[in-house]
Amino acid sequence: MSKWHHRFLGLASHIAQWSKDRSTQVGAVVIGPKKEIRAVGYNGFPRGVDDTIESRHQRPEKYAYTEHAERNAIYNASYTGTSLDGCALYVTHFPCCDCARAIIQAGIAEVFVDKSKLTPDFLERWQQDMTISTEMFGEAGVAVQVIDDEGSTEPLS
């Protein structure tokens, strides 16, 4: 099974490269029960919003314009009328609590996160969000696993 985890996380990493965010590129892919791709997303501006305006790329203004990869994948599925119920989400970075709520509400059953992105800096900056996300995932029955470079998984500790 590890080859599939490795492939899907690799696809999420590839999709992250589509992001124009200058500091962090995040990618997400939602996979159906038969290993079919249901939706993809990356962090970026909404459709049709001008991403050439320099000030929109600077903190804190960029936070008002940028959508996260996980929610973009969910919105893209909605845009095409694709159900995500019972699917798995592969994402390069751990979901924030806003994304966690969307993941739960979309019916996604499993979340797989790139272990290499859980750096001390990331953990320090996002610890509160991760704690809340993890709590909500646990209560809602969404399984969370981290994937290492070999494609092996382990529950989030």
Automatic annotation (TrEMBL):
Domain of life: Bacteria
Keyword Transmembrane helix among record annotations: no
Keywords: Hydrolase, Metal-binding, Zinc
Binding site for Zn(2+): 68, 96, 99
Cofactor: Zn(2+)
Alphabetized SUPFAM superfamilies for the sequence: Cytidine deaminase-like
GO molecular function, one term: dCMP deaminase activity
TM annotation in the entry: none
GO CC terms of this entry: cytoplasm
Name of this protein: CMP deaminase
Species of origin: Thalassospira alkalitolerans
Taxonomic lineage from the root: Bacteria, Pseudomonadati, Pseudomonadota, Alphaproteobacteria, Rhodospirillales
